[in-house]
Design goal:
The chain is α+β, with helices and mostly antiparallel strands. Helix content is 33%, strand content 25%. The chain has one domain: 2-Layer Sandwich (BirA Bifunctional Protein, domain 2).
């Protein structure tokens, strides 16, 4: 395997989602890519199969937020004070949960380097029941098995999908939001809900069930330091070394920005 690490900085929502999907669809054999990025302007992303009517898109755009659809599943996320990661790699017959576990193990190693003693979520919700609840429109009101948490509160929300890459082999695309600040909680005001009481309840759920690096560390970590810790975490957990140059597949994605 040849591994590349790419920090693409702050990008618009459409670019970020198109780039992640393109990387998955054009991944050469025996290649893996870890990409980190941010969002400018901030955006709300919807899961691939999520109904767009759950979000007040007009209100989002009036407040300066993009609205995009992810190429993966899951529920709505407000992307603002976060570092987003993307892993694209050959599936090699591994199942969804085992891949989640391996990626989360690397993320935990990076967070430990940052001084954050995060851990795995051990339980798995019953998703058909979960999606019938009032808070089901929002990703961060629940945790799935092997997602990353800190003292019982969700710190990273992730989603995964499989594609067919170059050479006809199955490719994993997994990306997720590492919360640096509390801005993600603001998504409640953009939800289409039955009444304001329900909106307030969702806000409390987000407050009670999530945390962020600023709350844990007492201050926001420098982005360069955080990204460096994440990179070293993957190298440590997977016993790999990233190549310093950007792969050709990444350059192809740049040309379609």
């Amino acid at each position: 395997m040849t591994w590349y690490f790419v920090d693409s900085g702050l990008r618009g929502g459409e670019y970020n989602m198109r780039c992640d999907e393109r990387l998955a669809r054009t991944l050469p054999p025996e290649t893996g890519i870890v990409r980190v990025y941010g969002w400018n302007p901030p955006a709300i992303s919807l899961g691939w199969n999520q109904r767009s009517e759950e979000i007040d898109e007009r209100e989002c755009r009036a407040d300066g937020f993009d609205v995009v659809r992810r190429p993966t599943g899951g529920r709505a996320i407000l992307h603002a004070e976060e570092v987003t990661y993307c892993v694209v790699m050959p599936a090699e017959g591994a199942g969804v949960l085992s891949t989640y576990h391996e990626i989360s193990r690397s993320l935990l190693a990076g967070l430990h380097r940052l001084g954050v003693a995060a851990s795995f979520e051990k339980s798995q919700p019953h998703f058909p029941t979960l999606y019938r609840s009032a808070s089901s429109s929002v990703c961060f009101t629940s945790s799935a098995r092997y997602e990353v948490q800190y003292r019982g509160k969700k710190l990273i929300g992730s989603a995964q999908r499989r594609f067919i890459g170059e050479g006809g082999k199955e490719v994993v695309l997994q990306h997720g939001s590492l919360l640096v600040g509390p801005a993600h909680r603001g998504i409640a005001r953009f939800l289409r809900v039955e009444d304001e009481q329900q909106r307030e309840w969702i806000s409390r759920e987000l407050n009670d069930r999530t945390t962020d690096l600023t709350a844990i560390l007492g201050e926001a970590p420098m982005r360069e330091h955080l990204v460096g810790c994440l990179k070293e975490g993957f190298e440590e957990a997977w016993d790999i070394r990233f190549l310093p140059s950007e792969p050709a597949v990444w350059m192809k994605s740049e040309q379609h920005s």
